[in-house]
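pasting for the record
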Amino acid sequence: MKRRFIFVMAMSLSLMPVIAGGLDTAKGQQDGKTASSAASSSKATTQPREPLSIAGPDYVIGADDALHISVWKEPDLTNTLPVRPDGKISMPLLNDVQAAGLTPMQLADSLTEKLKKYLADPRVTVVVTQMNSQRVYVLGEVLHSGAIPLLPNMTVLQALATAGFTQFANTKNIYVLRITNGKQQKMPFNYKQAMKGDTVAQNISLKPGDTIVVP
């Protein structure tokens, strides 16, 4: 009985390094999987997101706008680019490309056709990130005079909310100047009545180049 006990103890002691090594190996494999999973998760989290367009599908691109050009699986061709004063953008492989006067979809189609010379299956997305070509101007007794980016369907009230009034502003005699067919129009706007909802017709949607004057 004593000999059997000594034999069992000896076998147990001889197997301990093997068991410990197996446990270490399993722990190492589990740690490796955890680290790999964390790295994959971190990589997925840091993937850059495509910016959202601030313009509608019918928006016509103009000079000074900013465009995000995305070419699927081509990071070297994906970038945010300004539209130059001559209405063109500069891209690798294509050099200068006309952008002004086109909608985002039309420009994407144009770039797709041009890139077919260099890529097997180009997929291009164009997103307008800044509409700097579409501006209106607010002058006179306002806190922030000058150019304001024209957002889709922006009204006189919305533009004035952005500009703010000084304490000397004559809000009853505001007017909008607009050039139509080479002739200047003067359209009155009574801010106080508009705030009450009495002059809804005066709260017109602005067009590029309109000037709001606050006397």
